[in-house]
Amino acid sequence: MEDFVVVRGIVLKHAPVGDYDWVATIFTAERGKITAFARSARKPSAKLSGLVEPFCFGTFKLFAGKNSYTIAEADIENYFEGFRADLEGACYGTFFLELCSFYTRENNEDKDLLNLLYFSLKALLKENIPNRLVRCIFELRALVIEGEYPGIPEGQKLLDSTRYAMGFITTSPLNKLFSFSLSEEVLGELDRITKEYRNTYIDRPLKSLEMLEIFEY
After folding, report:
1. pTM for the full model?
2. Alpha-carbon distance 153 to 159, whole Å?
3. Residues in domain DNA replication/recombination mediator RecO N-terminal (predicted)?
């Protein structure tokens, strides 16, 4: 009897392998970051064609082999198709995917981080909140989820509104995180702090930052 597992997650990246296959990295709620083969998925008529692209979010039925997974079926709930027409949003979204890839590990359940990623990607497609604010919220709350958030920095002169925003970001329910706006001055302070924390807690270069910096500088 074949050994199947069902997981819920999002495709972080994929790469071609062989003549017609993809190998996908999927961030799952149940098993963390896993690698799975999508056989013949590069053929336009294949059952899995278009279902293992980055940002595809849904349920994946996997055959668990001795040393790897193979995708048998995929039920995609959200393709985040809006990023196809929104280069800036896609660059931010790709950064979020890469940051999640940095944090998550195989067989490490991380439902909170996956939920944060999902809400953050949806927020990037809204016009009423700046992408830079979405990024700050995502990065700070990810630090909280991963147990690395150091708190509001001591010894820095910060606006009261900045301190309040950081408290709101780090404690509010995920579905309330993207419900506010900030002045440019407060967002600037929040941005600076977020980047300081990134430089402290991320110990490797992030490729997606090169493209993202085009929109932020």
Report:
1. 0.95
2. 12
3. 6-79
